[in-house]
UniProtKB/TrEMBL annotation:
SUPFAM superfamilies: Multidrug resistance efflux transporter EmrE. InterPro entries: EmrE-like, UPF0060. Belongs to the UPF0060 family. Keywords: Cell membrane, Membrane, Transmembrane, Transmembrane helix. The keyword Membrane applies. It is found in: Cell membrane. It is a multi-pass membrane protein. It comes from Mucilaginibacter ginsenosidivorax. It comes from the Bacteria. The chain crosses the membrane at residues 7-28, 34-53, 60-78, 90-107. Its main location: membrane. This is YnfA family protein. The keyword Membrane applies. GO terms for cellular component: plasma membrane.
Length: 110
């Protein structure tokens, strides 16, 4: 799988996981209507499907996705929730992203 396609799949998976989780959070913690939670659950289920579009094995995909998720969660919190990441949040996210790239994109013999 080429790098661009792999990154797009990770981003779509992240949007599904974070978006679905956010809707459930809104329903349970912010007293939004139940349909927020139902829609969030459906979107979270879609995340499980999207992750299978990666060509690497389960463990490697989920380990690498964790690094992508950290960065995306901070971006979501900043843009959607008004959270302002500090420099340590940014440094931590970049370290996690570097680790994710090493895990998923390092060439390996077959």
């Amino acid at each position: 799988m080429n790098i661009l396609r792999s990154l797009v799949v990770f981003i779509v998976a992240g949007l599904c996981e974070i978006g679905g989780g956010y809707l459930i959070w809104q329903w349970l913690k912010q007293d939004k209507p139940m349909w927020y939670g139902i829609l969030g659950g459906i979107i979270l289920a879609a995340y499980g499907v999207v992750a299978t579009w990666q060509s690497a094995g389960f463990g490697r995909v989920y380990a690498a996705y964790g690094g992508i998720f950290i960065l995306m969660a901070l971006l979501w919190a900043w843009r959607v929730d008004g959270f302002k990441p500090d420099r340590y949040d940014v440094i931590g996210a970049l370290v996690a992203l570097a680790g994710a790239c090493i895990i998923i994109f390092t060439p390996r013999g077959k």
